[in-house]
Amino acid sequence: METMRHPIIMGALALYMLLCIAVGMWAMRRTRSTHDFFMAGRDLGVMLTAFAVFSSTLSGFGFVGGPGLVYRMGMSSVWMVVAAAIGFQVTFLALGKRLRLMAELGNAVSLPDVVAMRYGRRSTGFFVALAIILGVLGYLATQILAMAVVLQDVLREASWWPGISLEACVAISSAILVFYVVTGGIIASVYTDLVQGAMMVIAALAIFFTVVSTFDGGMGGIADAIAADDPEAIGPWGTLGVFGCLSWLFVFGMGGSGQPHVITKLMMNRRVRDARHILPVTLLGYLFSALLWIGIGLFMRAMVVSGQHPELATADAAASQFLQNWAHPVLAGVVLAGLFAAIMSTADGFLNIGTAAIVHDIPRSFGASLKNELWWARVVTVLLATASALFALYTGDLVAILGAFGWGTFAAALVPVVTIGFNWKRATPLAANVAILSSLAFNFIVKMAGIQMPYRIDAGAVALALSLVLFIGISWLSPKPELSPEVEAVME
Questions:
Q1: In sequence order, which residues have a C-beta less than 8 Å from that of residue 321 and are 6 or more positions away?
Q2: Other Cβ atoms closer than 10 A to 273
Q3: What is the CA radius of gyration of the chain?
Q4: At what angle do helices 122-157 and 329-356 cross, to 10 degrees?
Q5: What is the pTM of this model?
Q6: Which of 42, 340, 21 is nearest to 184 (CA)?
Q7: CB count, 10 Å around CB of 129?
Q8: Which residues, at least 6 apart from 265, have a Cβ–Cβ distance to it below 8 Å?
Q9: Are 183 and 25 in contact (CB under 8 A)?
């Protein structure tokens, strides 16, 4: 079986690519309007919505960036896992029913649509659309870079194309992604999420069992090996330190309800009452899948520091190196195919909301609309994917760091406006606009200028705290806004 390892892995990936083409062509026949392209007809069942939510949260961020972050920082990124689980509960409790009702009230096809309805201002919808476009650049870049890193590692290990560059892998990954999204829109994403989510859960459990059974002494042996090299890495705060970890706990816990690729899916389920059933399925799927994040990262760090595996060229290679050298060939093939599936699905979601912001939301905020929106949606998808691919190549960041930047950008801009604003009648349009613009300015100035926060605190956490203070303070100091009777009824 070992002699067939690389053909099995490449065969699994090739089959998956063919599946992407087939799903895209099938979904294209079901995509007849922008409502289908962006909202999947608002007809998703419990399982489809639940798996779409947790799959889009993990994706390349969790399957490539997560193990890479554990490999580099030890236990620090476990705080992300814990916080994201808390974030799901905050999201469903605060927005599960209200978003769905608001979307139905205004026949909305995007998050800026319902935000503009809530605040009664087109300008607020415009600023939400702007935040989505800028956040998508960072988060979509995460997915493209994750796919390219894995593809490069697989092709090199199989000796099929040992000299292939990361730039070439980014180009290949982007081309496949664009075809998948342009043909099928969000329908192609959510209808494959059920299979992909199931693959992620099963694969994560199998991987964790492989980790425990392969390393001498199991998880105890792994902890001992890492502690002998760097005791801090296996401690509760990892190498990031207490302030950095607590800032991740804040931004990933509170910020989960500000991720548009996640909360938009709460607008797509068939019935409002389904939210209570979607949450437990989402939470269980996420927690089981997160075992892969933790298991692979700790295993590869222990193998390297104990001299049983060469030093990794980059921390992001932890997942692919484990699968190609230590997992059973069939399991490796299935997991890599599942990894590509998760990345494609999440990237589809990001391209979808980013494209909607450009072709639907921004024109509407100026009282206009594009003719033939569906055609323009497909054109803009290509342009947005190209811009994100360039961002992925030239920032020089790890997958998880790019993901954390995208997460923090969304959280700081949207948590006050959506999570608090949809539950607090006192919130005003002025406060919403100031919160969005201040958080975007802070995040991008810090990122582009390379400013480091003291005590390794995450910049997204600082931006979120700033936008919350401004949003609440300005709302309190402003006159109480007048809400339409329909919006007030939804908020009740």
A1: 153, 300, 309, 312
A2: 11
A3: 22
A4: 160
A5: 0.83
A6: 21
A7: 28
A8: 44, 49, 52, 53, 56, 190, 349
A9: yes
Determine phi and psi for 44, rounding to 5 degrees. -90, 140
What are the domain boundaries of the chain?
A: 2-416
Interhelix angle for 5-30 vs 122-157, to 10°?
Answer: 150
CA 212 vs CA 116, 296, 327, 420, 474: distances in Å: 50, 10, 12, 43, 53
Contacts of residue 412, defined as CB under 8 A and 6 or more positions apart, other chains included, come to 255, 258, 439, 440, 442, 443, 460, 463, 464, 466, 467
Residue that has been written with the tokens 């055609």 in this structure: 375
CA–CA separation, 408 and 392 (whole Å)? 17
Residue 193 has which token pair? Answer: 């999420």
Cβ contacts of 241 within 8 Å, gap of 6 or more: 76, 455, 456
Three-class DSSP category at 269: strand
CB 382 within 8 A of CB 178: yes
Closest CA to 323 of 167, 220, 214: 214
CB 263 within 8 A of CB 57: no
Amino acid code (one letter) for 332: A
DSSP 206-238: HHHHHHHHHSTTHHHHHHHHHHHH-GGGGSTTT
Fold topology of 2-416: Sodium/glucose cotransporter (1.20.1730)
From first to last of its 492 residues, the chain has per-residue pLDDT tens of: 566 767 777 777 777 767 766 766 666 666 555 555 554 445 566 777 777 777 777 766 777 778 988 999 999 988 988 898 898 999 988 988 888 888 888 777 788 989 999 999 999 999 999 998 887 777 777 778 777 877 887 787 766 667 788 888 888 888 877 776 666 555 556 666 666 677 778 888 888 999 999 999 999 999 999 999 999 999 999 999 999 999 999 999 998 899 887 888 887 777 777 777 888 888 888 888 888 889 999 999 999 999 999 999 888 888 888 988 888 888 888 777 777 776 776 777 778 788 888 888 888 888 887 777 777 877 888 888 888 888 777 765 555 566 677 788 889 999 999 999 999 999 999 999 999 999 999 988 887 788 889 989 999 999 999 999 999 999 999 999 988 888 888 887
